[in-house]
Amino acid sequence: MQSLVKIYSTFFIIVSLIAGCSIAITTGLKTEEVREGKIFGTYTLLLHGNRFGGDIENIVIFDIESDKYTFEIFAPEFDYQIIKGLSGDEALKRAEDFVRRHILFKRSQLSKIFDNEGNLIGYELRPLYFSSAFMTDDVLDVDYRIKGDKVVVRIEVNPFLMKKRFLERHRFH
Q1: Quick one: which of 75, 91, 104, 140 is 20 to 30 A from 55 by CA?
Q2: pTM, to two decimals
Q3: Strands laid side by side in the 150-157 sheet
């Protein structure tokens, strides 16, 4: 039994090191939390998650319609919805309604998304949960990469939380 635990531990250490190296080699786009709650312009919303009652991979991406980039979520089409042509106020209202659906929702966090030259190209609204439930309030690991005129978005649960969940499910008694 102990050798199996050592194998799992070694596996997760190796995966963590590999993941850490890949993050260090390449970097995604910069995000910065917004302190004021108003945004202006016209947006396409990409609403990811809320696929089932306990889904914590919920986030909304605000794609500015007047810039050169289009956001694209790297996930099956059934994992997200797209709503076009919303004003800033309407986009914020719909996004807030979307991210607050989880029972452990505490508050939302709005952040700006910048391209490699520092230009504002969109926003994200993510839910923050009660940290007592997940050991952290921010459970998502979101990566933005520019490929031509597209911004590819990868969304996943923080790898630390995935490791913790796996170990809890496969705990040896």
Answers
A1: 91
A2: 0.78
A3: 70-73, 150-157, 140-147
